[in-house]
Specification:
- 43% of the residues lie in helices and 18% in strands.
- It has 393 residues and is of the alpha/beta class.
- It folds into 2 domains: 11-50 and 89-203, Rossmann fold; 56-87 and 208-391, Rossmann fold, CATH 3.40.50.1100.
- A 6-stranded mixed sheet has the order 3-4-14-9-10-13, sandwiched between helices. A 4-stranded parallel sheet has the order 7-6-5-8, sandwiched between helices. A two-stranded antiparallel sheet has the order 1-2.
- It starts with 9 loop residues before the first strand and ends with a helix.
- Its EC number is 4.2.1.20.
- The modification N6-(pyridoxal phosphate)lysine is found at residue 89.
- The beta subunit is responsible for the synthesis of L-tryptophan from indole and L-serine.
Length: 393
């Protein structure tokens, strides 16, 4: 069994491109060109140069000594929080803006939940001088105000999504509508490993720089390129896809995907797609998603604005169904506690998304000799208000 995408755009039975006819030319243009463009030496050179000089890569692989002592195992944090803009999202937006330019597009649209992808998109649009429109749920706009301000400072237009739950799913719907109406000059930068083929694969390839670096950094630290475990939080799943990418086919390396259980898996306020999800189609791909018995999408919930997506990318649906990755659901309370613990043990304030991944150490026992690499996908600046309110700081 393979865990990578096949030539038809599927991971096992998940993936594909289920799109309205109006979008077919856009998606097809991308599908026909993305691998060719990414393979061009000039593209690679520009992409890698920007990752180095603009994003600040490689991000450190940090041995978390005090955290490791507490849980009696070897914990390494892949510090994506130290990237320019504060998260892993920039790896993908740099790649996609270079792709858009080569396809002759000069207007960029994006969706965002926590605002990190919106900021990363607005950043690269400013860098390249392209028009930028970001769709964001009205509720997320309220709870992620600093990121909205950042996007506006970077020259982006932020358009509120006022339908449905007024969060990420609805922002995505609005972005897709825009794309249908502006097919010729517009490129849609999707922020996660979701959407119609080739997006899940393209985003995973741009994020694969994370696992690529982990290999040689681990060699420096431990004298081996392979960890025993790779742990990452999963909403749509782009930071996890990047952290897993070079390890997918090596089944000796265990993959742990951490999703948001919200107020409890069966509380009705959750985003635990692996447990609650059934096969269905969302935003152009077949995957696992939370839905009612008659197929209406259920509203997800998480204290973290980046994990409350009702589905999961098709790569992750396949990793779950095939048993290649272990999925663990973490509640708001468990995540907040783990986030505060990292602050106080290591002096690092994590994004609440990443805090979900950190909560794994209370749920699962690792051996003292295990090397556990955890993707610290983002920094906590954007979440300070949530932390303040939760802990009455």
């Amino acid at each position: 069994m393979t865990y990578n995408i096949n030539e038809k755009g599927y991971y096992g039975e998940f993936g594909g491109a289920y799109i309205p006819e109006m979008l077919y030319p856009n998606v097809e243009e991308l599908r026909e060109n993305y691998l060719k463009i990414m393979a061009e030496p000039e593209f690679q050179k520009e992409f890698n140069q920007l990752l180095k000089d603009y994003v600040g890569r490689p991000s450190p692989l940090y041995f978390a000594k005090r955290l490791s002592e507490k849980f009696n195992t070897k914990i390494y944090l892949k510090r994506e929080d130290l990237n320019h803009t504060g998260a892993h999202k920039i790896n993908n937006t740099i790649g996609q803006i270079l792709m858009a330019k080569r396809l002759g597009k000069h207007r960029i649209i994006a969706e965002t939940g926590a605002g990190q992808h919106g900021v990363a998109t607005a950043t690269v649009c400013a860098l390249m001088g392209l028009e930028c429109i970001v769709y964001m749920g009205e509720i997320d706009i309220a709870r992620q105000a600093p990121n909205v301000a950042r996007m506006k400072m970077l020259g982006a237009t932020v358009v509120p999504a006022l339908s449905g739950s007024r969060t990420l799913k609805d922002a995505t719907n609005e972005a897709i509508r825009d794309w249908i109406n502006n097919p010729v000059d517009t490129h849609y930068i999707i922020g996660s490993v979701v959407g119609p083929h080739p997006y899940p694969d393209m985003v995973a390839r741009f994020q694969a720089v994370v696992s690529e670096e982990i290999q040689w950094q681990l060699q420096e630290h431990e004298g081996k390129t392979k960890p025993d475990y790779v742990v990452a939080c999963v909403g749509g799943g782009s930071n996890a896809a990047g952290a897993y990418y070079h390890f997918l086919e090596d089944t000796n390396i265990k993959l742990i995907a951490v999703e948001a259980a919200g107020k409890g898996i069966h509380s009705g306020e959750s985003a635990a797609t692996s447990v609650l999800g059934k096969e269905g189609i969302i935003h152009g791909s077949k995957t696992l998603l939370m839905q009612t018995p008659d197929g209406q999408i259920t509203e997800p919930y998480s204290i973290s604005a980046g994990l409350d997506y009702p589905g999961v990318g098709p790569m992750h649906a396949h990793l779950y169904k095939s048993g290649r990755a272990q999925f663990i659901s973490i509640t708001d309370d468990q995540a907040m506690k783990a986030g505060l613990e990292l602050c106080q043990l290591e002096g690092i304030i994590p994004a609440i998304e990443s805090s979900h991944a950190l909560a794994v150490f209370e749920q699962k026992t690792f051996l003292p000799e295990d090397v556990v690499v955890l993707s610290l996908s983002g920094r906590g600046d954007k979440d300070l208000e949530t932390y303040i309110n939760y802990f009455n700081l």
